Amino acid sequence: MLPRLLSLSLLSFALSGCSSLEFPWVYRISVQQGNIIDQEEVDKLELGMTKRQVQFVMGSPLLIDTFNQNRWDYYYSRRDGDGNVKDKRFTLFFEGDKYIRHEGDIAPSPASEEPDSETENKNRQQADDNITKEGDNTAY
């Protein structure tokens, strides 16, 4: 009876390391791979940027195609302890040394509306008036 119990316990310990068996007390870590792709980084990209500028903003690409140097692939994958996988893909295309387009799961946010020239001129005029008023009160 004792050898049978001992062999059964050794077998259970040996199998506890196998991934096919799931024990509730075993902690499984999250695994992250690739480049973390944030919306902030993607929003900083502008058409016409050089490869060095893009690399400064986004970091080094995970994949640079050996046969097509004008394509950079950024990939991020996260597998949580339950086995759920979330991934993001972002591909940049260049023409020569200039960024021309992108593809992927993330798109740049729409640019905020630029103020029209009339509003901008009014704001400048108000700022100039304030400076002039402040200058009148000072003695030279």
| Quaternary | single chain
CATH class of the domain at 42-107: Alpha Beta
What is the CATH fold-level name of the domain at 42-107? Beta-lactamase Inhibitory Protein, Chain:B, domain 1
Could you list the spans in which at least 5 consecutive residues all have pLDDT below 50? Answer: 112-117
Shape: elongated
- Mean pLDDT, all residues: 77
The Rg value, from CA coordinates, equals 29 Å
Q: Provide the succession of SSEs.
A: HEHHEEEEH
CATH architecture of the domain at 42-107: 2-Layer Sandwich
Beta-strand portion reads 15-25%
Please summarize the sheet with the most strands.
Answer: 5 strands, antiparallel
Class by helix and strand content?
Answer: alpha+beta
Number of β-strand runs:
5
Distance between the termini: 106 Å
Helix % is 25-40%
Number of helices: 4
Give structural notes:
The chain is an alpha+beta fold and 140 residues long. It has a domain at 42-107: 2-Layer Sandwich (Beta-lactamase Inhibitory Protein, Chain:B, domain 1), CATH 3.30.1450. 34% of the residues lie in helices and 24% in strands. The chain has helices at 2-15, 39-44, 51-58, 117-136; strands spanning 31-34, 63-64, 71-79, 85-95, 98-104. Strands 1, 2, 3, 4 and 5 form a five-stranded antiparallel β-sheet that branches. A hairpin with a 5-residue loop joins β3 (71-79) and β4. The termini are far apart. 7% of the residues are buried.
